Every structure is written in structure tokens, then in C-alpha cells.
């Protein structure tokens, strides 16, 4: 985990995380930079339509939570918003 946090100290504009990932969930991984006081925008993606999970992630500071299959324009818009270009 600490090696992942060290990588985040290099210039990173945004995290794109899947909610379900092997080994560690996206929301669990998202807690690492928060705990280390590294502030990065994050866009979550998921294949499961769960409005309560989406709302919770947005409340915790996620920029967006997109449902798969992703629409190109929705992903581009979410990333642009996350890095302040929207």
C-alpha cells in the first residue's frame, strides 16, 4: 500500500477507480490518499447499479460514479470536470 501512495506523490491529476477490483475495492483504495492527506479528484466506475453506493461515494468526495458500459462522452465529461476543465 505504501508504494501505491508513493506513486501518488508524483504528478497525478485524477484517479479512475472501479468499485470492484481484485484484492482491494476502489472505495477502500480511495481511503489511502485521503488518510495520507493527498487530495485527488476521483471518478468511480461500476457495473452494478446501486444508487446508495453512488450517493455515498459522492458524499465522500468522489467527482462522479459512472455505470458501465461507459459512454465515451460521459467519461470524458467526468474526467474533464474532475481535473477542472469543465
What does the main sheet amount to? 3 strands, parallel
Oligomer kind? single chain
Q: Strands across the major sheet, in which order?
A: 1-2-3
Radius of gyration: 13 Å
The N- and C-terminal alpha carbons lie at a distance of 32 Å
Shape: globular
Mean pLDDT: 82
β content, as a range? 15-25%
Per DSSP E runs of 2 or more residues, the count of β-strands stands at: 3
Q: What's the order of the H and E elements?
A: HEHEHEH
- The parts where pLDDT drops under 50 for at least 5 residues are none
User: What's the tally of helices?
Assistant: 4
Structural class: alpha/beta
Residue share in helix: 40-55%
Task: Give a concise summary.
This protein has 86 residues and is an alpha/beta fold. It has helices spanning 2-8, 26-35, 51-59, 72-82, and strands at 15-18, 42-46, 64-67.
Salient structural properties:
86 residues, single chain, 4 helices, 43% helix, three-stranded parallel β-sheet, alpha/beta
Secondary structure layout:
Elements: H1 2-8, E1 15-18, H2 26-35, E2 42-46, H3 51-59, E3 64-67, H4 72-82
Parallel strand pairs: 1-2, 2-3
Protein described:
It is a single chain. Helix 3 links the parallel strand 2 and strand 3 (64-67). This protein has 86 residues and is α/β, with parallel strands linked by helices. A 3-stranded parallel β-sheet has the order 1-2-3, sandwiched between helices. It has helices spanning 2-8, 26-35, 51-59, 72-82, and strands at 15-18, 42-46, 64-67. The protein is built from 4 helices and 3 strands. The mean pLDDT is 82.
